[in-house]
Amino acid sequence: xxxxxxxxxxxxxxxxxxxxxxxxxxxxxxxxxxxxxxxxxxxxxxxxxxxxxxxxxxxxxxxxxxxxxxxxxxxxxxxxxxxxxxxxxxxxxxxxxxxxxxxxxxxxxxxxxxxxxxxxxxxxxxxxxxxxxxxxxxxxxxxxxxxxxxxxxxxxxxxxxxxxxxxxxxxxxxxxxxxxxxxxxxxxxxxxxxxxxxxxxxxxxxxxxxxxxxxxxxxxxxxxxxxxxxxxxxxxxxxxxxxxxxxxxxxxxxxxxxxxxxxxxxxxxxxxxxxxxxxxxxxxxxxxxxxxxxxxxxxxxxxxxxxxxxxxxxxxxxxxxxxxxx
Length: 326
Fold this sequence. Notes:
The chain is an alpha/beta fold. The chain contains twelve helices and 13 strands. The chain has helices spanning 55-63, 66-70, 75-81, 86-103, 107-110, 130-139, 155-165, 181-193, 246-249, 252-264, 278-281, 284-287, and strands at residues 3-19, 22-35, 40-45, 123-125, 145-149, 170-174, 196-200, 220-222, 241-244, 268-271, 293-294, 312-313, 316-317. The strands form three sheets. Strands 4-5-6-7-8-9-10-11 form an eight-stranded parallel beta sheet. Helix 6 (130-139) links the parallel strand 4 and strand 5 (145-149). The chain is globular and about 60 Å long.
């Protein structure tokens, strides 16, 4: 019989991280272990208040599943047994890790994928005043891709400052639902002038119909508007790209299927993350292979990480060692 444990793990951040919805100084994550008595798999999720999730709520949900595990709950059954979200993500990824250890294979082999390699990842600059963002941009100007958190008054000044600090770096921006259609239309020409490659979730996810009627002069990516495959029909005609995050899909299993279906529907793919450790990013590196944009910089924002962490270098974020996951 499988035994499940779920507990909170707290990682201090290297510095305060701010988006349009608030600031944080630590990453509070849920760590799940799943053991058959011989092998142990593990996974991590980041409960997100935007979706009504809390650390305690996710832990309670996961701990309530012990009777289901006794009755044969496995990764396949899990997909219909729980809704998508952070709780299912942690358990789904723990199942993958446990199965890989049992079978003596890597998770990418189990998924029928080619052996993964490194992928260039964005590095995120959190929301701040223009001068601070310029300083941070200059500090990270050696990176090939910066992701800029916007979504408030003064966004244009912030973006001008970042471009001045990192004149040669590719830039993508994330408004975190902080704009309206008029703001997007007013800013779009300047975004093009400054070489911005893509804008992520400019309008609120539940008030994005205006995207059907305005000219999208640079690609618009659905983040909060895209959770799993069921999200895709309502995104058509509004978005050019979808951001796949395991904490939204409810794990690697659904994320693999979402990527396939989104690509068939004509969407480009971004693979993103919440602020978590290398354990949370590890399964996502499998989804990120060959996508338009990878944003798996969570561990780079931490003051400390897991043992056997993911490797980051000039080639990007590397797939996990088996000592970490999968």
